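Hi everyone,

Forwarding the result from last night's run.
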Amino acid sequence: MTRSKEAAPNQYYDTLEVRRDASPDEIKKAYRRLARKYHPDVNPGDRAAEDRFKNIQEAYSVLNDPEKRKQYDLYGQYGFAQDPAGGPGGFGFSGFDFSDPGGGAQSGGFRDIFADLFGRGDSAGRNHQGRDLETQVEVPFIDAVRGTQISIDVNHLKGRERIQTIERLRVKIPPGVNTGSRVRVAGKGEAGEAGGPAGDLFLVVKVRPHPLFKREGNNILCSIPVTVTEAALGSEIEVPTVSGTARLKIPPGTQSGQKFRLRGRGVPATRGGGRGDELVEVRIVLPERLTERSREILREFAQLNPQDPRKKIERGS
């Protein structure tokens, strides 16, 4: 059975999403785009994408070869031999060598296409870049805010015999990282095969808690004890920060739990945008032991300053 050129199907053209009169360059560009999108390494475990990828390979094998394209335009799939598996005149993969479809200089073969698409690979288009590796590192709170350098040992499997080697790396941890931040170390993942590049190493940061400081976004929170007289009369106290100490003015009549802001003393933004603040919460601390004279003074103080701090609290019935 034969078909006229006008009746020939558009299946392969539709597969590559091009017109029937598409130029060889347009066909090649369409193939590059679709092969990159549906390649099994880009869609691991996706059977539908794998099937689509095979169809794309099949269509390109025909339309990229001038003689096969001419035969296909005239007779469609019926212009090719029957599938050895017994299919009714359909196109079978057995008729083509996908390691170099279309042959020679005209098509360039899948070898060249995949090398161009992924920058690596073999004649079947397999991606031989090494896998990315991931490991967790613990960083002290202050170092996470300021930035630091750490030393880590990384196990590598190299060569066809997959010989294990240990490499000590010195890695820079940027300022402002938080728990869950990922630091990329390029080319320090699993070694590639067949001359492919190595993968990357990702350090997943866990920040060690600090006894005084806590982080909230890019702000740092801390609680500082003050005496009754400092809070009542006002004072200037020294406050610890992640970058040293700072002076903080406590105004007269400061209440326990009141917060004060030290601008620019917080965490630097990892992607620019300035630095957070430190929020200092004042906590009034009473003397643990009072002399009899101190008690007399407090009783006199209470008489001179009658006050009911619970007066405004709504009382239950």
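Residues 188 and 200 are 5 Å apart (CA to CA).

Cheers,
N.
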